[in-house]
Amino acid sequence: MRVSRNEMIAALSRAYEGAGHQTGDYEDAAQLITWSHMCGLGGFERITLPPEAPKGGVAPRLDYENAGLAVIDAGGAEVCEHGSLAADLAFAKAQETGFAIVELINCRYPDLILRSLSLIAQQGVYIAAYWSDQIGMHGASFESGAVFPNYWRVEQAGAGKEASALIIICTTQAALLADAVTRQAEHPGLQRFEVTAAQLAANYDQSLERGISVSSDHWSALNAAAWPILVPSDDKSRAGAGPA
User: Fold this and answer.
1) Longest alpha-carbon distance in the chain
2) I need a labelling partner for 219 at 20 to 30 A (CA). Which of 8, 57, 143, 207 fits?
3) Where are the beta strands (DSSP E) in the chain?
4) How many other CB atoms sit within 10 Å of the CB of residue 169?
5) Distance between CA atoms of 226 and 228, rounded to whole angstroms?
6) pLDDT one-digit tens code per residue, 170-209
7) Which residues are CB-contacts of 198 (< 8 A; sequence separation ≥ 6)?
8) Is the dihedral of CA 200, 204, 206, 210 positive or negative?
9) From start to end of 135-218, where are the E strands?
């Protein structure tokens, strides 16, 4: 079946709200997952349904910081809870020093950070991210002003755990990002898979025009995850529902 972008965002927002995520976090999760899936990088089929509850609602822990570097411990939370914070911090440091690295450790679904990085890149900086998961190692880099990244993946079975580290590199100088990307992407002897920014843009536009493809079972599970926030149907709730 196919659903619209707005339908998917609304369904995901309800599902994450039903899991107990706060306003802002569940909205971010919906936007991040939908954007990634529309680009063809996956999203819906990998997230847990129903979504897991937030990790206690505690603030992320800053393990280390200097002018151009920061290490943040997400405490096992999904990237939708603290990913925007890490991206904004990388941007702020890069504005001050010209080059910054922010590492978000112990986070789940690190690949879903890409929409947050897109919003940063559109402010006129170069930004990239690297992470690993059960599939292998991944990287994505945005040119200054770009909406979509160039993405690569090196498949390596058992390469990472469910919670992993996400490294964000942000700079105002193209040469500095190019050097960092080259060093991160070197994996001789391993099969490499690449998708250009143009292809991701085409995937997104196609999903926007034709609708987002999602299995009926996944869609049903997504909507069922919103049950905790639905108002029980009784005389009181029906009386407050407004005119038919």
Assistant:
1) 67
2) 57
3) 2-3, 61-65, 69-73, 99-108, 126-132, 136-142, 150-155, 163-171, 192-195, 212-213
4) 23
5) 6
6) 999 888 776 666 555 555 556 778 999 999 999 999 999 9
7) 148
8) positive
9) 136-142, 150-155, 163-171, 192-195, 212-213
> Chain-centre distance of CA 31, in angstroms?
8
Phi, psi of 145 (to 5 degrees): 85, -5
Amino acid found at 159: A
CA distance 100 to 108: 22
Which pLDDT tens digit goes with each residue over 39-70? 999 877 778 888 888 875 567 888 999 999 99
3-state SS track over the chain: CEECHHHHHHHHHHHHHHCCCCCCHHHHHHHHHHHHHHCCCCCCCCCCCCCCCCCCCCCCEEEEECCCEEEEECCCCEHHHHHHHHHHHHHHHHHHHCEEEEEEEEEECHHHHHHHHHHHHCCCCEEEEEEECCCEEEEEEECCCCCCCEEEEEECCCCCCCEEEEEEEEECCHHHHHHHHHHHCCCCCCCEEEECHHHHHHHHHHHHHHCEECCHHHHHHHHHCCHHHCCCCCHHHHHCCCCC
Cβ atoms 165, 179 nearer than 8 A: no
Residue 237: band (very low, low, confident or very high) from pLDDT cuts 50, 70, 90 = very low
Q: Please tell me the distance from the alpha carbon of residue 104 to that of residue 180, in angstroms, as a whole number.
A: 18
Please name the residue that has the structure tokens 């986070």. 107
Whether the CB-CB separation of 135 and 107 falls below 8 Å is answered with no
Beta-bridge partner residues of 164: 107
